[in-house]
Amino acid sequence: MTPIRTLFARTLAAIAAIGMASSCAPVADQRPARAGMPAARTDAFVIAANPIAAEAGMAVLKRGGSAVDAAIAVQAMLSLVEPQSSGVGGGAFMTYFNAGTGGVEIFDGREVAPAGADPAMFMGADGKPLGYRDAVVSGRATGVPGAVAMLAMAHGEHGRLPWGTLFGDAERVATDGFTVTPRLGRFLGGSFPQLQVADARAYFGESDGTLADVGDTIRNPAYAAFLKRLAAEGPKALYAGPTAERIVARTTAGPLAGTMTMADLSAYRPVKRQALCRPYRVWKICVPPPPSSGVGLLQLFAMLERTDIAKRGPQDAQAWFLFAEASRLMYADRDRYVGDVPDVPVAGLLDPAYVASRAALIGERAGPAPAAGTPPGAPRLAMDRTLEPAGTSHFIVGDAAGNVVSMTTTVESIFGTGRMVDGFFLNNQMTDFSFSPTEPDGRPAANAVGAGKRPRSSMTPLILLDADGRFAGALGSAGGNAILAYVGKSLVAAADWGMPMQDALALPNLVARGPSFNGEVTKFSPDLLAALKARGVDLKPGQGEDSGLHGVMIRKGRVDGGFDPRREGVVLVLPAGQAR
Hints:
Blueprint: H1 6-16, E1 44-48, H2 51-62, H3 67-81, E2 91-98, E3 103-109, H4 132-135, H5 147-158, H6 168-176, E4 178-179, H7 182-188, H8 198-204, E5 217-218, H9 221-233, H10 236-239, H11 241-251, H12 262-267, E6 271-274, E7 276-280, E8 283-287, H13 294-304, H14 317-337, H15 346-349, H16 352-359, E9 391-398, E10 404-412, E11 420-421, E12 424-425, E13 462-465, E14 471-476, H17 483-496, H18 501-506, E15 510-513, E16 516-519, H19 526-534, E17 540-541, E18 550-555, E19 558-563, E20 570-574
Parallel strand pairs: 16-17
Antiparallel strand pairs: 1-9, 1-20, 2-3, 2-10, 3-6, 4-5, 7-8, 8-13, 9-10, 11-12, 13-14, 14-18, 15-16, 18-19
Helix pairs in contact: 2-3, 3-5, 3-6, 6-9, 13-14, 13-16, 13-17, 14-19
């Protein structure tokens, strides 16, 4: 492949030409209009993990498109230029702020298990769970993709430009080629089992058998052709016809063939859900309900509100200790109770008396891994042992009318299963289920595999409202089960400590779950690490994909946006009045 850098350079130059403003007040001061009335015009913005994807969304906003219109363009481009993280072959959760009504809406595009899925499908002949490296590239690993159908549902309700006009930039870049960035190049140099799959090797491979490297150009005419059909035909381009036939063929091929059928694809439906919202200090946090883990994030903040963490700061070891211990308690409950089942004890997990009893377990020193509690209405379930990798992306879009999309999107682990159809990777989302449906004593796992079920997700795209119900911010991340910790840390920093969003996202990550305390050890000072160790928190280097945090707060009416410096993100702002 011949290196070309002009496309990426032009994108960066365009980014540099667009201003970004920020300041430090804690809440928004722009009210949405009353229901049925047009909202006041405001700055539009796009925050995403890849500059080319962000520019595709901004181009839609400049044409007068809505936040949902721009989100479609962003996802179409991410599927091409950040294929290790998300794509049209995966799923997503969208949390949407409707400026016209002041309401928060949830669009659930999580993948579903095929009708032929069996609770023991990830158990071997020896009665033990399959090895993860075998399962993740198998035909059984792919759930019915949901992102495209979900985006189409959201577009039907909140789109402004025609669906067919939203894919042109991604189609052009797929045809002309894009430059392998340092981050994509790092993953192509990794030892992931997906890169041994024939499809992935053919797509990324050089004539000498090596894989593409940083600066190389990748062209994807198959994806360009698919996008042309998707623009013309709508979602049926994926859920019926030749693309659907190819998805079935790839997922029912060995090793470990899956059971997906054309009927599974045609039957997929996204779900419009009620947002789960709870107060936190002077704000209200709104997140998706199960099978998302938003309830865990709300429980974490309900516990932290019973501590003095807000009076502390990022250089205070006690603040990090409180965060770590509250995180461990939250994860113990999340891992036990959250899944796609009808009896997740959401109200019980957030019950004030129960939250207070959990927060009271935070002592002066970290002890053994905390056990799950028994919230009101809790079913008798086993502790879940789901392995949840981190191939995910998050982005945020706000339009000129004040509508905002906070969307987390994924193909599950790096490059999904490594199997491709029409230029995009297929997800391995089924491995987000518990491999074992029961414990030795027979207790069922909340996150067990089941036909038509949606696997539990740590994706928690949130919307923050102020005390008057106005949009105050949005936040989300990639990172597998660490998403809750990444988002929690960042919201404490931005909201409680008043840090600019960019600084809040750049703070070191600390993930405390079960007996483990992981984090970016080299980013904490030696004195802080020593003080944490004295409290029983012996921090070790983390593992898995980097966080992919993106966030925004409206401070004194201005956009204070931030991107995760661990990725290649960008914040683009379009001043009010500059969109059509």
